[in-house]
Amino acid sequence: MTYRLGVDVGGTFTDILLIDEETGQTYRAKTSSTPQDQSIGVLRGIERVCEVAGADPTEITSVYHGTTVATNAILEGKGAKVGLVTTHGFRQVLQIARSFVPGGLAGWIIWPKPEPLAALENTVEVKGRIAADGSVVDKLDEDDVRAQLAKLRTAGIEALSVSLINSYANAEHERRVGEIAAEELPGVPVSLSSSVLPELREYERTITTVANAAVQPQVKLYTANLASKLREGGLTGKLSILRSDGGLVSADAAADNPVSLLLSGPAGGVTGATWVAEQAGFSDFLTFDMGGTSTDVALVQNLTPRIGRETNVGDLKVRATSVDVRTVGAGGGSIAHVPALTQALRVGPQSAGASPGPAAYGNGGTEPTVTDANVVLGYLPTELAGGEISLDRDASRAAVKSIADATGLGSVEAAAAGIIDIVNENMFGALRLVSVQQGFDPRDFALVAFGGAGPLHANALGKLTGAWPVIIPPSPGVLCAYGDATTNLRDEAVRTLVRRFSEFTDESLRALLTELGDKARGTLVDQEVDEADVRVVYSADLRYHGQGFEIPVEVDIDAFTGDGAGLGSLRAAFDVEHQRLFSFVLDNEHEVVTIRATAHGPRPQVASAQLAEGGTDPSAALRDTTRIWVEGGEVEAGVYERSKLLAGNVVTGPAIVTEMDSTTLVLPGHAAAVHASGSLLIRPVAETAEPITEN
Asked: Which of 311, 359, 314 is CA-nearest to residue 332?
């Protein structure tokens, strides 16, 4: 018997999912995260899930891990001390940056500009120059390179980044600087922009390379430490890390290119949600992942997550391929507060985190959080995470009472309802960013809600967005770990061209794409993937000639048959996307800026659960009744045990559905139908269809 293990480390909880590769049966565990050393929480969770499954750690063949190590290093300002090598005359590339200031009117007055990840005093210039066409204008002065690196050695840098002008067109100078750095700065990891991001635009390429260098030591140390402790615990399976674009890479490859991991955690959730929605028969949906610290949302169309070319973490924006996820500081641990200046109730982005956590956890927390509001309203049971966490209702009421007193709302319940309404609106705003702002009507999509806190707020978000049904997956609290365990190996090869369509033929562009595809395919073959199982997809960043930005468009390489049909289809696809985004098209000639090939390994075969048929009556799963506060008053709600629900059961609200890792709230006027795959499909009662038992 063999198992596959998915691990997702969040700001509050560490989720573990063990999958029997023969039967598809899953086992789960949820433990508190250990920010001081994430591997402690991971190993504790693995030990617990193996006990539940009766499995031996030696039977685990693969460990798939979504991690926030790189993300936290950036957010907490704990990255390495980075040195930067630039071309002579470009030393202040990070200080000049882009002339964009966030915020509204007069934002430029109050916005504190973040410090660059590589300080100016740790930035040096070297003599040598590459032209935009890749030719050598000035030969690299190696003596000067050694002299400049000596300055950085004296400064005590911990990581080195090299970003020379036009190196995307010719990496010769960068590679040589890297070789010299290995001699002059032994033991210091080196990031070359021609390897990290071989694309146009000097600033974006430089900041991405510097970010890679800043997190590389921590990621390398973490992956090596985790791999070592897994071996000590008897796990000999291969460790793979989830990338921001939802694909997997080996731990060694992740340590070499950690900037691709900045959205590792959220990407796992989107991957897991895609698998669940497919089982329930839905291909277009929004994802809503609410954890203890933040909420991540994304849009998936035709079972394909929208992929962005930029990754945002805090004030940092880097050019790295990632699932187009938007994050807001709204989670179960988000703290409610009333600023003295405005006397208006606010929720987040500050979070109580895992320690001390919400007041309900009884670990010393006293500030009112979203979790405390849910406890006050009666939506949460007295125990979470399978009994690991017990909730203190009196502590929650005392915390929320401070909000009632500060706002004059009167009752504690009214204050708690206000907290929930505000956090729901915050999350609704994030969902609009990935739907309405991108030209999509959320009413054309379903809504997949997961994370430890997501199912509690899902029904309300369905009402706000009009996205039905709201899909609550089995084990929603560990879905990110499920996504980690059900995704595939992936690699990407990129080349910047900047050529008009008139400079191409179908044959010439197809040849360039094929070359990139072979390169990306080779990386997976090197990781022991059978070449016959590798699938390669292509895309291009296009623009009208004269535009200052590009739009990514999928490329159908089979359309490039030699008669111009390929370029014609590419032109038409770009015009359609431009029309959708901006409501107009231009007559300008089209231009190819960047092409890329992405190689996908085979997707793991995981058997999906099929529930037994049980009719519409869910009474066999009814455990209790309780009083909850909803719509301004108390009502009686049924409390159902999810593990006892059968396919076809319909749970009519108000109701609470409990399970080990999450709690689902069904509001009055709505009903949750149990799909044969195990998902709950929540709709308004008037729209609840006959129970669906097949896709």
From this structure: 359
**Among 10-14, 147-151, 187-191, the least confident range:** 10-14
Report the distance separating Cα 96 and Cα 86, nearest Å: 14
CA max distance for the chain: 81
Which residue from 323, 267, 247 is spatially nearest to 535, judged by alpha carbons? 247
Confidence at 110, pLDDT banded by 50, 70, 90: low
In the chain the first and final C-alpha atoms are separated, in Å, by: 29
Q: Can you spell out the DSSP letters for 207-262?
A: HHHHHHHHHHHHHHHHHHHHHHHHHHTT--SEEEEE-TTS-EEEHHHHHHSGGGGT
Average pLDDT over residues 52-72: 86
β-bridge partners, 161: 84, 191
Please list the residues that pair with 449 across neighbouring strands. Answer: 288
- Neighbouring C-alpha atoms within 13 Å toward the C-beta of 81: 9
Residue 220 tokens read as 């390398």
Sequence letter at residue 618: P
CA distances from 36 to 9, 357, 389, 478 (A): 13, 16, 20, 22
Tokens read off for 303: 């079972």
428 in Cβ contact with 457 (< 8 Å): no
CA-to-CA distance for 206 and 212, rounded, in angstroms?
10
Give tens-digit pLDDT for 555-599: 999 888 878 889 999 999 999 999 988 899 999 999 999 999 999
What's the 3-state SS for 497-561?
Answer: EEEEHHHCCHHHHHHHHHHHHHHHHHHHHHCCCCHHHCEEEEEEEEEECCCCCCEEEEECHHHCC
In this predicted structure, the answer to whether residue 179 has a pLDDT above a threshold of 80 is: yes
Rg (CA), the chain: 26
Record the tokens describing residue 226, joined without a space.
């985790």
Residues in Cβ contact with 512 at an 8 Å cutoff, skipping those fewer than 6 apart: 495, 497, 595
**Distance from C-alpha of 664 to C-alpha of 452, rounded to nearest angstrom:** 10
Residues in the chain, total: 695
Show me where the domains of the chain are located.
Answer: 490-600, 619-687
- Does residue 286 register a pLDDT over 60? yes
Burial class from Cβ neighbours inside 10 Å (0-12, 13-18, 19+) for residue 378 reads buried
pTM, two decimals, is 0.79
Separation of alpha carbons 254 and 676, rounded Å: 37
Question: Which residues have C-beta within 8 Å of that of residue 639, sequence separation ≥ 6?
Answer: 381, 622, 623, 624, 625, 626, 655, 656, 658
pLDDT of res. 247? 82
Query: Where is 498: in which H helix or E strand?
Result: strand 490-500
Q: Is 616 exposed, middle or buried (0-12, 13-18, 19+ CB in 10 A)?
A: middle
By the 8 A CB rule, do 639 and 381 touch? Answer: yes
Question: How far is Cα of residue 352 from the mean position of the Cα atoms in its chain?
Answer: 21
Residue 103's DSSP bridge partners are: none
* pLDDT per position as a tens digit, 608-662: 778 899 899 999 999 989 999 998 899 999 999 999 999 999 999 899 999 877 8
Handedness of CA 509, 514, 515, 521 (dihedral sign): positive
